[in-house]
Amino acid sequence: NRFLLSLLVCSKSRTSGSLKICSKSIIFEPDDAVKVFFFFFSQIYLIKEENMVAPYKYERVKKRVTFQLEVPGKTEDIVQILLQLHRASCLDKLGDQTAMVAAILQSRLARTCFDKNSFQHVTENPHMECVAEMVSPLVTNAGHVCITDCNLYFQPMNSYPMHSYVNLCVFTVCVKGLEVFCTENDLCSDIYLKFYSTKERDELYYYIATFLENHIAECTAESYMLQWQRGHISNYQYLLHLNNLADRSVNDLSQYPVFPWVISDYSSTQLGQSPSNTDTHLRTPITHTHAKKYLERYRDMPEPHFMYGSHYSSPGYVLFYLVRVAPEHMLCLQNGRFDQADRMFNSVGETWKNCLEGGTDFKELIPEFYGSDSSFLKNLLGLNLGRRQGGGRVENVELPPWASDPDDFLEKMRLALECQYVSEHLHEWIDLIFGYKQRGSEAVAAHNVFHPFTYEGGVDCDSIEDPDQKIAMLTQILEFGQTPRQLFVTPHPQRITPRFHNLSATPSLSSSELSPLSPSMESFEDLTEESKKMAWSNMNKLALQSCHKIHKEAVTGIAVALSSCLMLPDDKIVVCSSWDNNVYFYSIAYGRRQDTLMGHDDAVSHICWRDDKLYTASWDSTVKIWKCVADDISSNKRTQFDLLAEFEHEAGVNTLDLSPAGTLLATGTKEGTLTLWDIASPLPLNQLTCHSGKIHQVAFSPDSRHILSVGEDSCLVVTDVQTGMLIATVHAEQEQRCFCWDGNTVLSGGMSGDLSVWDLLSSKVIHKIPAHSGAVTCMWMNEQCSTIITGGVDKQIILWKPEY
Q1: Beta carbons of 341 and 48 less than 8 angstroms apart
Q2: CA-based angle 346:351:355, to the nearest 5?
Q3: Where do the BEACH domain residues begin and end (predicted)?
């Protein structure tokens, strides 16, 4: 419990501060924060005299320390707690000690409840109250959680710290916890709550989502990936989101956020772009220089196999970096002592060298290296961290010569993290830490295998019956380090980076040159690209130009119609596919059918023309590529077509699309399967069932990085071309039949006849436009994105133009 007190030593001097009674020790924090005192129960002799709580006798220095309460009436309660905890510390077995401490805690929690006098408003209505623990570095604090229709409260059982309340938050659900991130305008700090059951955690989660109107739910890894790929969030922000989703928290030193090393030069006076070492590190663990040795040991080792005897993130490593701003945590972790001076965080360059060449040091970095607060690099508290073997005192961290001061160091680190080179390779590091190279055969191939205890689910602690073994195992897991929860099981796609100048040819980089947003590095975009961007930015302002009802049946294809139609590049021939299994060629000049291609055993559902080749998709489960043999297909003669390739599917093919470069083919089947093909090979590159029914349309993004598909399951699905990973699924209110898109924004036509403008990053419809009186079945857009034509079951075609 927290009380004002006095500390009396031999000289009878008095020091005011706070007393924390923990499960295994008493911690006294003086108000001047010069020194923290740790008194373990095994060294405490308890007496009771007036308002004195406990004298302390330390065998070596023979000093007596007495705590004197300045809050009368609390002495009896405090002495009882101390006696109970002292008895627990005297038990021989660790399991018995833990069980007794837990029993003491539960008995005290049972006698208390949430104090509703702490509500911020008298009109607040409580919906749920339960017991939980607030997790902070190396300490958990039990108390009561209460949620009302306005706020979320945590009230510690011991009133230290004082109760917290949150009314605006982002929250992340962990295994048995809930992390709450307050907005910048909130007066409270972020809190990490651990519950005693997942049921209570889930119930609180439900009430937050139901009653707290201002809450913001955490997005999925796929959603953040899409935002990162498109440049809407920075590398730093994306890594923070991934750490959050992988249950990493700054409130838990055993699962602290992990960040990569991105600079390999810590000895030059100017920071040059030398990507060789950094590139290798982003592709493989930081221990790559000793990979052969570790691989041999791995192969010769009996089960369980592992390559590294320690981890890249552990409480000791985190406090190695943060000792100057959080000395109390290191003292707590190391029984009241700092580490030896030569093993402290003395130099950035030395630390990098040890990690790269030492063979036993695998430390990655922490977010602070890319933040704005440089205090962790300076000994602002004037701590006595010892003297090194050379005689020098441990003070501020030694920085690389290219950094003028700690703030300049952090600025260059931030700029390096966001530069083009790192952006293009960061996905490889993500594969190691959060992705498919974290476990299994891919981890072995990447030399990325750590001790089984470090992986989620690596040890089933609930199956360990012996309490001493169970506590020892949990302690080992917490102190050894833990691998983040695996977020991706397929290769992570690369970031889409602007067409910058080649940075590797630059001899040295200033701060401005490192920035990916430097004006001198921006690529030139022609007027056509600018006009496309402008058109898409005004897609929610489509204006109807004209409407024509000239067909007898539903309009199913548009070319500037049958199952599908297109105009050949010479504007002399219209090609139409038909439900009667044929493809027809119509001469515009002669006004009649010129030729017929009978190439399928079922309806021809979709056709495409590229580089004098015809691509046909059919419900007979094939896609075929045909080559026109005639020199001039527009001549009034019958034309011969040779079959160049055939791509077989397991179900009828309903749609297809070619990548802008014409090298990749995407197909969608009646059973919801999307398949990606290399035109030069009949074998699929990637195949996944991304819809629960027929796929109506598939289309590559203009940069060929993604494929968008819509189906009769009312979903819009974005798939990464490089990895075949499904990275976004948007559920529409109604089935969408057709669309055009620019990679970020989608214009789609639905069953109701409306046109919808979608923002894929937010997964929301940003505008709706009334169009047809029935389903919109086809859509065409010119290359400049300045004209749109839609067709529908109402037998109409409508011409649209964006208004500027």
Answers
A1: no
A2: 160
A3: 213-495
* Four-point Cα dihedral 390, 392, 397, 401, nearest 10: -70
What DSSP character marks residue 256? -
Inter-axis angle of helices 315-322 and 467-480, to 10 degrees? Answer: 40
Model pLDDT for residues 324-337, shown as the tens digit of each residue: 998 888 887 777 78
Rounded Cα distance, 656 and 38, in Å = 70
**CA–CA separation, 192 vs 173, rounded Å?**
10
**CB half-sphere exposure, 323, CA atoms < 13 A:** 28
| Residue 742 contacts residue 788 (beta carbons within 8 Å) | no
CA 480, 445, 240, 761 dihedral sign is: negative
Phi, psi of 422 (to 5 degrees): -65, -40
> For residues 481 and 254, is the Cβ–Cβ distance under 8 A?
yes
For 2-21, write each residue's pLDDT tens digit: 333 333 333 445 667 776 77
Residue of 742, 779, 778, 748 lying closest to 761 (CA atoms) = 742
List, as one string, the DSSP characters of 99-143.
Answer: HHHHHHHHHHHHT----GGG-SSTT--EEEEEEEEEEETTEEEEE
CB 291 within 8 A of CB 284: yes
Select the more confidently predicted residue: 5 or 764: 764
Of 33-42, 410-419, 748-757, which range is least confident?
33-42
List the structure tokens of 189: 């700090």
CA 174 → CA 193, 245, 253, 279, distances in Å?
Answer: 9, 8, 15, 32
Buried b / exposed e over 625-655, threshold 16 CB at 10 Å, is: bbebeeeebbeeeebebeeebebebeebbbb
**Can you read off the two tokens belonging to residue 668?**
């969608």
Residue 309 to residue 647: CA distance in whole angstroms: 50
Residues shown for the chain: 804
In angstroms, the CA 707 to CA 701 distance is 6
Across 520-572, the runs of DSSP E, i.e. the strands, are 542-548, 564-567
Instruction: Answer yes or no: are the C-beta atoms of 616 and 577 closer than 8 Å.
Output: yes
3-state secondary structure of 304: coil
Could you give the CA distance from residue 751 to residue 776 in angstroms, rounded to a whole number? 6
Q: Which of these, 35, 31, 23, 20, lies nearest to 327 by C-alpha position?
A: 35
| Residues in CB range of 260: below 8 A, 6 or more apart | 281, 282, 364, 365, 426, 429, 433
- The yes-or-no verdict on residue 526 having pLDDT over 50 is no
Name the DSSP letter for residue 436. Answer: T
